Amino acid sequence: MVFGTTILGSNPSAPANTMIKITSTNIFKSLKSKLFPFYKSKEIKMIFNILKKDETKNNVAMFVGGCVRKFLKNQEIDDIDIATIFSPEEIKKKFENTDIKVIDTGIEHGTVTLILNNSKFEITTLRKDLKTDGRHAEVAYSDNWREDSNRRDFTINAIYINENGKIFDPQLGVKDLKNNLVKFIGDPLQRIEEDYLRILRFIRFVLEYGSTTEKTTLNAIKLNLIGIKKISKERILSELFKFLKIKQLTNLIKNKELFEIFIKIFPEFKYLSRLEKSEKINTLDIDKELLISIILVDETNNHEYFCHKYAVSNVLKKKLEINAKLYKEYLKNNFLFKKELKKSVFLYDKENIKNLNLLLFFVGKLKYNEYLNYKNLIDKINVPKFPYDGNYLIKKGVEEGKAIGRTLKKIKHHWLENNFEIREEELEKIIINSKN
User: Which domains does the chain have, with CATH numbers?
Assistant: First the structure.
């Protein structure tokens, strides 16, 4: 096994043949990644020392996947994946009686998660494919790094770095990463037929790395689109959430071929073009529930079809329902304007109104300056608490039961319609009438 170090230039994330503007931020990031690389952290050193204990083999574990790509691209690393020759049971054994907790997060795939000082590290056993059907893969554990690389999807996803920063690159992924190329390992048609989810992964990686797409790969994808139906809804939804986390999501709208493929998979996402407005508002600053609302919600029940199709979580379903309901309310009576804003915040909660304001901007109902104006107004609103309850009415002689609810409803209506105020005589009048 031969390792070599590779340097990708001052800013490897820029496309080839592009003039790079050197800034103090770029220089600082570059120096930081070289002087304090992620693999030198105290937590990682501890993990590797435990893995190597009583072992004679070299490279019992190496980094792989996103953390390697981001390190080589001089980007911020948000998660760390480790590949190892040890089985999940052997990993658990090694970390017994240590300060590191081991959780079975993907044991069926040979993956466990290590937790140390509130940091998570996914660690997966090397594998080789025995049998694949486009939906599930039958795999066996391995201790052969090249075999493990052979079963991975893209060349840039099969770059390994050991604990000392040395690179093992059996699929020549470093060169492709440098040139922003997303290439399948081997025959694209065969790799897609092994796991149809790779179609979505390919689109996401192309968006992330600004890659050009080869005709043969696109043809292989189009030939296998029907295979997406074999994939579990959970896996598709999980991959979709990863799409929503990438900065380059709006590039999907600009890439006609990939856009057409994506829409065939997600026909309910009729309004992706709304995201073109993200030049003013970064989609990464929007939570996934609202982002999905932006590309789903209209005056119909489009969001309900999506929820049913993918059996989404109750949290996501509820938030989509709220956003859709408020959007329809707005279309009916345009309540989101200065006179009614405070009342709307009281009735529907400040966070929901802030979400509606953003949704209305992306939908095109509000101009950017209007959105900002409402945002400032909403932020400044302090809604008073409704000052009356059942105990107050009982003390005033109202009988317990349905009368309490009816009376409170009338008082609250009057209170809201009079800018959160109610005169004593009006209050008494409502209470007296409720007794009759």
Answer: 1-181 (3.30.460.10), 185-267 (1.10.110.30), 390-435 (no CATH)
